[in-house]
Design brief:
Helices cover 78% and strands 1% of the residues. The protein is mostly helical. The protein has a domain of 187 residues: Up-down Bundle (Four Helix Bundle (Hemerythrin (Met), subunit A)). A two-stranded antiparallel sheet has the order 1-2. Helix 1 packs antiparallel against helix 2, helix 1 packs antiparallel against helix 4 and helix 3 runs antiparallel to helix 4. The longest helix is centred in the middle third of the chain and has 89 residues. The protein is rod-shaped and about 155 Å long. The N terminus is likely disordered.
């Protein structure tokens, strides 16, 4: 180990030295690397949020479209059953009118009502479910019986039979079938109307659910991004602190905190370069402590024995030059401890 020469060197610090420039560049690199690492995390969170929103939107759109289709179908079927029931009621009304006014116009109107009922039930059979098709088949069969009964009643009226004879045909063949058809058609119309209202309610529930899921997804994504940002900020601060600490230790004495030989040489070279540019001067003052090595080696003067740093006596010895040199450090100079 060379002879310990505690010394103070002074140089004007108008601009950062080369080593300090390296420190600043490294700090900028650490901050930049933190930002670079934050980009993939932010992109991943944004992609996950986008995928979640797409799934929610697709699910909601599909459910809403299905409910809308079912509601439209239920409305159409309900209207068709209602129209068929109205046609059957028109047939019954024209049948009673014919008993009072047996004219050709009434017969033609009755036949028109018959065809309207059959056409409406055919449309229901085309777009309805299996249950609708089964009901249409029963109603068409009953309607055929009703038409035969009505034709028998019209024939009895045309033969000028008695009112009692006409009533027998009416109550025995026409009215019973009419009552059954009316009940079935009105019941089916009410059921499809209720189904349409249920589908509308389902669409509203789906809309509210999708809105809630959108809100939850957005909040979760925002919280995730915020948490990632907090984590990244803490990591960057920790890296910055650790890097600054290690850099400071590499350029300063760990016991006294004074600049070490590396930083002193760097600042001296920087000061000489600046003085050459400005025609200035640089002063270096060396302070030697007598018997410093002998004191540090326990007084035996053995230069091969390491100085006892870390023990209380050795630390006091090495800290002894710190107090006189501190005023120089506070001035525009560099006070360094070189071992």
């Amino acid at each position: 180990m060379p002879h310990p020469d505690p010394a103070g060197g002074s140089s004007r610090r108008h601009a950062p030295s080369v080593a300090e420039g390296r420190v600043a560049r490294l700090m900028r690199g650490v901050r930049g690397s933190g930002r670079a690492r934050s980009y993939p995390v932010g992109l991943t969170a944004a992609a996950a949020l986008l995928v979640a929103l797409m799934v929610v939107v697709l699910f909601g759109s599909r459910a809403t479209d299905r409910s809308a289709g079912e509601a439209q179908r239920a409305v159409l079927l309900g209207a068709a059953y209602q129209q068929a029931a109205t046609g059957v009621a028109a047939e019954e009304s024209l049948e009673r009118k014919y008993r009072l006014e047996p004219t050709l116009v009434t017969r033609v109107a009755h036949e028109t009502a018959e065809r309207s009922v059959e056409d409406t039930l055919t449309r229901v059979d085309a777009v309805g479910s299996a249950a609708d098709r089964a009901l249409v088949s029963r109603v068409l069969t009953e309607h055929g019986r009703y038409v035969l009964g009505a034709e028998g009643l019209f024939a009895a009226v045309d033969r000028h039979e008695s009112t009692a004879a006409v009533n027998v045909v009416d109550t025995g063949q026409v009215d019973p079938v009419f009552g059954v058809m009316q009940t079935q058609l009105y019941t089916a119309a009410g059921a499809h109307q209720a189904a349409a209202l249920a589908q509308v309610a389902a669409m509203r529930r789906t809309g509210r659910a999708v809105l809630g899921l959108d809100a939850v997804t957005l909040l979760a994504g925002t919280a995730r991004i915020a948490a990632a940002g907090v984590t990244l900020t803490r990591s960057r601060r920790r890296l910055h602190t650790q890097s600054a600490f290690h850099l400071h230790r590499s350029l300063h004495d760990t016991l006294t905190g004074l600049p070490n030989r590396t930083l002193f040489q760097d600042r001296t070279a920087h000061a000489i370069t600046a003085a050459r540019r400005t025609q200035g001067q640089v002063a270096v003052m060396l302070v030697d402590l007598n018997r410093f090595k002998d004191e540090g080696s326990g007084g035996r003067g053995d230069p091969r024995r390491p100085l006892p740093r870390g023990c209380p006596r050795g630390d006091r010895v090495f800290s002894s030059p710190q107090a006189p040199l501190e005023p120089l450090s506070r001035a525009a100079a560099t006070a360094s401890l070189m071992l």
